[in-house]
């Protein structure tokens, strides 16, 4: 028999994975456009960029949030954290303490929105 705690924990991990994957897909897609436009890369960069943005939209639609606006609000916190991870991992610029503080505040806000008990 599976305990309800395991089910809740598995659902939470799935939800976090969705938001993290969606953020990476959106950031990669937007970066492809950035690279084409701002870094003078080939227009062929737009092809994986468009596919990545489509993947982002599909992943975000898997959110367990009851409303699209709430899913988008929660996603915003994850997007900020993953953008700073991208900044460090891909662009080689280490986030400073204010970046990290701001990201922590945003992620805490996203958690409040996602995990708050909702009345009927």
From TrEMBL:
Membrane topology: Multi-pass membrane protein
This protein's UniProt keywords: Cell membrane, Membrane, Transmembrane, Transmembrane helix
Official protein name in the record: Small multidrug resistance family-3 protein
InterPro entries associated with the record: EmrE-like, UPF0060
Family according to the record: Belongs to the UPF0060 family.
Membrane spanning residue stretches: 12-37, 43-60, 72-88, 100-117
Places the protein is found: Cell membrane
PANTHER family named in the record: UPF0060 MEMBRANE PROTEIN YNFA
Signal peptide segment: none
Pfam families recorded: UPF0060 (PF02694)
Predominant subcellular localization, coarse grouping: membrane
Organism field: Kaistia dalseonensis
């Amino acid at each position: 028999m599976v305990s309800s705690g395991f089910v809740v924990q598995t659902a939470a991990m799935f939800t976090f994975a969705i938001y993290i994957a969606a953020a990476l897909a959106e950031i990669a897609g937007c970066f492809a456009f950035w690279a084409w436009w701002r870094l003078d890369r080939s227009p062929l960069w737009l092809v994986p960029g468009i596919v990545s943005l489509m993947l982002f939209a599909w992943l975000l639609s898997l959110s367990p949030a009851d409303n699209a606006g709430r899913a988008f609000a929660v996603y915003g916190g994850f997007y900020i954290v993953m953008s700073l991870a991208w900044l460090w991992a891909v662009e080689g610029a280490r986030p400073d303490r204010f970046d990290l503080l701001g990201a922590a505040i945003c992620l805490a806000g996203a958690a409040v929105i996602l995990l708050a008990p909702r009345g009927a």
